[in-house]
């Protein structure tokens, strides 16, 4: 982070604070100085090799990950959702849009159809997973304006797939330039796997490692899960587990201040740019004490059913301030298969596994027990649903993380065939951030019949025998958040007279993005 950008960000933080007013401030992300990309757009993808050879395709799991700029809000609910009150005076800017860069998963090498994000992961990147002996081929596309990478912990790799910029001879994938692509190949060898007396799956970090911890502070961090194949299901998930949770404990620094640098910033005959006390005050003002990038209970999706065996993957990164103690109310865990506790200690770059049996229904607090961290918002809520046939005990979504079969970009939430032959659809599809709904046509394919729509600025479109409506665009015709909600009515239904008990293939095209799914149809009376 350049000195000029730090000062600009510090000034931005101080804006909008008069009379208790809080306004969103964003500052352009500057490229790090003095780093020459090791891969450029002109080079093409020069990765995909493991010590000079292509990995065994029969034992390779392929992921497609892009680094993309985004705007992030640490407290989108605008209040403390646990205590049911406004954010405290000590944290007036937690509800503030800031510039970040995130790892985003796509379905294939076209990087057009985004995989629907998992809400409980928050800002953390997609989970990458496999069993011992697998290779992970991760095709990385850098859509930001600065060199970035993907550096893994724990797995085996050659120099080109290290993903860490270290002159004088950095590997090819150590600083992927803007717009460039590189395929990392990582081997989940025996040394990356759980030991026989450890839990059946093990967690490792991955993060960008071009510009030190600044890359992590941008939001570029995720995890890898490695499962012992003797204790795994056919899809690679641990068979002694019913649900997985990932929580990253990290203090984000939005101040733009390098505290250590300010100690030495002096001009001849002039005082320092800031006093040490002023520097500490600015840094504290910019601190976001988060779990998965959310503060004050704003992290969603930590839901489970009574009786489930839940595995928590606990991660931490950051500076010397990032000493954390994860504590669960209402439940106990077994840490790394060795000791029973309800508090697990984490240092920066810690990676731990904690197993829980969800035997106490209710809504419970999960928080860091370091007093200052808890006071400043490092807490969330997790929910144990009562076991039973009621609506309250319905299955929470996505029990396991990082599965290719769950890598969907189109979801049909409702498909109903009426007596008059109308097929009514409601669903969601992934789109780019700040997507304009009237810029390109929409094509829906149902049972090999196509319907083409050209939405207006209100998200409405009418085609022969069909109509289309976008449900979540803003007044300017823009969808934010990466997911477009839609409804569609096909009066010329392609499923008339067909067996609706069988799953139906559906496709949706938006520009160059091609989405597909399989859904079941219900008949209305």
Topology:
Elements: H1 3-14, E1 60-73, E2 79-80, E3 85-86, E4 97-106, E5 128-131, E6 135-142, E7 151-152, E8 181-187, E9 201-207, H2 213-217, E10 221-227, E11 243-253, H3 259-262, H4 276-285, E12 287-291, E13 303-305, E14 309-316, E15 324-328, E16 333-335, E17 339-341, E18 343-346, E19 351-357, E20 362-368, H5 371-375, E21 379-385, E22 410-417, E23 423-430, E24 435-436, E25 442-446, E26 449-453, E27 460-463, E28 466-470, E29 478-479, E30 483-490, E31 504-510, E32 513-519, E33 522-523
Parallel strand pairs: 1-6, 5-10, 11-14, 13-21, 22-33
Antiparallel strand pairs: 1-4, 2-3, 6-8, 7-9, 9-10, 11-12, 14-19, 15-18, 15-20, 16-17, 16-19, 20-21, 22-23, 23-30, 24-29, 25-26, 25-31, 27-28, 28-30, 31-32
**How many strands, which pairing sense, and closed or not: the largest β-sheet?**
6 strands, mixed
**Strand neighbour order, sheet with most strands:** 12-11-14-19-16-17
Q: At the first level of CATH, what is the class of the largest domain?
A: Mainly Beta
Structural class: mainly beta
- Report the CATH topology name of the largest domain: Immunoglobulin-like
Beta fraction? 35-45%
Tally of strands: 33
Total individual domains: 3
Number of distinct helices: 5
- For the record, the CATH architecture of the largest domain stands as Sandwich
Q: For the terminal residues, how far apart are their CA atoms?
A: 62 Å
Summarize the structure in words.
The protein has 525 residues and is mostly beta strands. Helices cover 7% and strands 36% of the residues. The chain is built from five helices and 33 strands. The strands form eight sheets. The chain has a six-stranded mixed beta sheet. A six-stranded mixed beta sheet has the order 27-28-30-23-22-33, with no helix packed on it. A five-stranded mixed beta sheet has the order 13-21-20-15-18. The radius of gyration is 24 Å and the shape is globular. It starts with a helix and ends with a strand. Residues 1-28 have low confidence and may be disordered.
């Amino acid at each position: 982070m350049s000195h000029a950008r730090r000062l600009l960000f510090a000034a931005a933080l101080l804006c909008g604070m008069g009379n208790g007013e809080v306004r969103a401030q964003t500052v352009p992300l500057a490229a790090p100085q003095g780093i020459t990309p090791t891969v450029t757009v002109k080079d093409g993808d020069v990765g995909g090799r493991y010590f000079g050879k292509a990995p065994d395709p029969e034992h390779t799991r392929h992921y497609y990950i892009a680094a993309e700029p985004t705007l992030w809000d640490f407290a989108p609910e605008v209040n403390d959702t646990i205590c049911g009150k406004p954010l405290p005076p000590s944290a007036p800017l937690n509800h503030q849009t800031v510039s970040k860069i995130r790892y985003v998963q796509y379905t294939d090498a076209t990087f057009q159809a985004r995989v629907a994000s998992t809400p409980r992961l928050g800002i953390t990147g997609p989970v990458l997973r496999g069993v011992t002996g697998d290779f992970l081929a991760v095709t990385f596309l850098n859509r930001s304006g600065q060199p970035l990478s993907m550096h893994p912990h724990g797995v085996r790799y050659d120099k080109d797939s290290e993903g860490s910029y270290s002159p004088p001879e950095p590997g090819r994938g150590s600083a992927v330039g803007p717009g460039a692509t590189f395929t990392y190949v990582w081997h989940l060898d025996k040394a990356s796997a759980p030991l026989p007396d450890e839990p059946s799956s093990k967690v490792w970090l991955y993060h960008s490692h071009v510009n030190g911890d600044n890359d992590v502070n941008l939001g570029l961090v995720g995890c890898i899960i490695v499962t012992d194949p003797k204790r795994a299901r056919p899809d690679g998930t641990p068979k002694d587990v019913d649900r997985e949770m990932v929580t990253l404990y990290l203090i984000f620094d939005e101040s733009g201040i390098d505290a250590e640098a300010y100690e030495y910033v002096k001009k001849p005959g002039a005082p320092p740019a800031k006093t040490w006390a002023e520097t500490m005050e600015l840094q504290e003002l910019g601190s976001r004490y988060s779990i998965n990038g959310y503060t004050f209970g704003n992290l969603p999706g930590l839901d489970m059913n009574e009786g489930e065996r839940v595995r928590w993957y606990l991660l931490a990164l950051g500076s010397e301030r990032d000493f954390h103690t994860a504590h669960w109310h209402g439940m106990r865990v077994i840490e790394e298969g060795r000791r029973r506790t309800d508090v697990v200690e984490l240092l920066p770059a810690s990676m731990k596994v904690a197993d829980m049996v969800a035997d106490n229904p209710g809504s419970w607090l999960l928080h860091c027990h370091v007093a200052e961290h808890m006071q400043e918002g490092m807490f969330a809520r997790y929910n144990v649903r009562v076991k039973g046939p009621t609506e309250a005990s319905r299955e929470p979504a996505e029990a396991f993380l990082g599965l290719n079969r769950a890598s969907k970009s189109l979801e049909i939430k409702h498909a109903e065939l009426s007596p008059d032959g109308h097929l009514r659809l409601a669903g969601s599809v992934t789109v780019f951030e700040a997507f304009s709904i009237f810029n390109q046509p929409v094509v829906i394919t149902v049972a090999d019949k196509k319907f083409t729509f050209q939405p207006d600025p209100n998200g409405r479109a009418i085609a022969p025998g069909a109509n289309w409506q976008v449900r979540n665009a803003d007044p300017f015709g823009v969808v934010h958040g990466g997911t477009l909600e839609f409804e569609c009515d096909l009066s010329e239904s392609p499923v008339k007279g067909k067996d609706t008990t069988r799953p139906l293939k559906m496709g949706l095209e938006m520009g160059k993005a091609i989405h597909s799914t399989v859904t079941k149809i219900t008949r209305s009376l």
